[in-house]
């Protein structure tokens, strides 16, 4: 082995990075009630009450929660929807 990367190695490495999912992150804010955040998570994402509450508590106590993972385009749609509901949300690449 010479230690140089082949074209196939570069394609495989590039594909691995591209396949990493993206995340929709909802951030804590001083405006929305906790009950409203649970309502949004249940209404939009279809989470059961316990999961919606768990995510809301993560937002409240940790300052943010990952509410969805998947392709970038879908996460951008989720983020826009959260904005429409009045929540602060961003899209980010999932960590390796």
Describe this structure in words.
Involved in the modulation of the specificity of the ClpAP-mediated ATP-dependent protein degradation. GO terms for molecular function: peptidase activity. Belongs to the ClpS family. Binds to the N-terminal domain of the chaperone ClpA. It comes from Microbacterium wangchenii. With 96 residues, the protein is α+β, with helices and mostly antiparallel strands. It has a single domain, classed as Ribosomal Protein L30, Chain: A (2-Layer Sandwich). It contains four helices and three strands, in the order αβααβαβ. The chain has a three-stranded antiparallel sheet. α2 crosses α3. It is elongated, with a radius of gyration of 17 Å. The model has no long low-confidence stretch (mean pLDDT 89).
Rg, rounded, reads 17 Å
Largest sheet: 3 strands, antiparallel
Sequence of secondary-structure elements: HEHHEHE
Query: Given the C-alpha coordinates, what overall shape results?
Result: elongated
Q: Indicate the low-confidence ranges by residue numbers.
A: none
Question: First CA to last CA: what distance?
Answer: 27 Å
User: Can you tell me the CATH class?
Assistant: Alpha Beta
Question: Which structural class best describes the helix and strand composition?
Answer: alpha+beta
Q: Spatial order of the strands in the main sheet?
A: 2-1-3
Mean pLDDT: 89
- Give the number of helices: 4
Strand content: 15-25%
**How much helicity do the residues have?**
40-55%
GO molecular function, one term: peptidase activity
Function: Involved in the modulation of the specificity of the ClpAP-mediated ATP-dependent protein degradation.
Subunit structure: Binds to the N-terminal domain of the chaperone ClpA.
Domain Adaptor protein ClpS core: 19-90
């Amino acid at each position: 082995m010479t230690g140089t990367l082949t074209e196939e190695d570069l394609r495989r490495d590039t594909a691995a990075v591209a396949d990493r999912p993206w995340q929709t992150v909802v951030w804590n804010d001083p405006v929305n009630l906790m009950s409203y955040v649970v309502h949004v998570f249940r209404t939009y994402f279809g989470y059961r009450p316990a999961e919606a509450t768990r995510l809301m508590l993560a937002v409240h106590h940790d300052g943010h929660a990952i509410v969805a993972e998947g392709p970038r385009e879908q996460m951008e749609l989720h983020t826009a929807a959260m904005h429409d509901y009045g929540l602060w949300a961003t899209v980010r690449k999932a960590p390796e």
